[in-house]
Amino acid sequence: MGNTKSSALSKELLEDLKSNTKYSEAELCTWYQSFLKECPGGKISKEQFEGIYASFFPDADPTAYARHVFRSFDTNADGTLDFKEYIVALHLTSGGKTLQKLEWAFALYDVDGNGTISKNEIVEIVRVHAPSFFITVDEIKFSPCIMKLN
């Protein structure tokens, strides 16, 4: 999905990321060098991502939610995040345009990737994220908002 394992970003990828994220050329080059230090193979595995994600939630087990977040960013569905997918993920979660965030949120909730979001998919995402908010599964399933969904 974009880059190779070389120590320099391709001009094509650099231009693509500059035009589709808020990051400058210098920032992208710095991020790329850091990315290669942490991921010498040029990719982040699902397991690595889960570990990184877990470090943000030390008092919970966000593994299931992290899998959904990973899936939503793994746009080529190869089971890894390359540098482009990683930077787009950073951009969307730390800024990004409203439409981009909405598209990402839709992809997150569209668990089966069929282009629609069902009540079960909403319950699934909220269920795996609920422990972060100290909400029980029953509180989710029987919430007035969820009950109104078809």
Automatic annotation (TrEMBL):
Annotated GO biological process: visual perception
Domain EF-hand: start-end pairs: 61-96, 97-132
Coiled coil: none
Gene Ontology molecular functions: calcium ion binding
Highest taxon in the source lineage: Eukaryota
The keyword Metal-binding is assigned to this record: yes
Classification via InterPro entries: EF_Hand_1_Ca_BS, EF_hand_dom, Recoverin
Keywords, ordered alphabetically: Lipoprotein, Metal-binding, Myristate, Repeat, Sensory transduction, Vision
Family stated for the protein in its record: Belongs to the recoverin family.
Protein name as catalogued: Recoverin
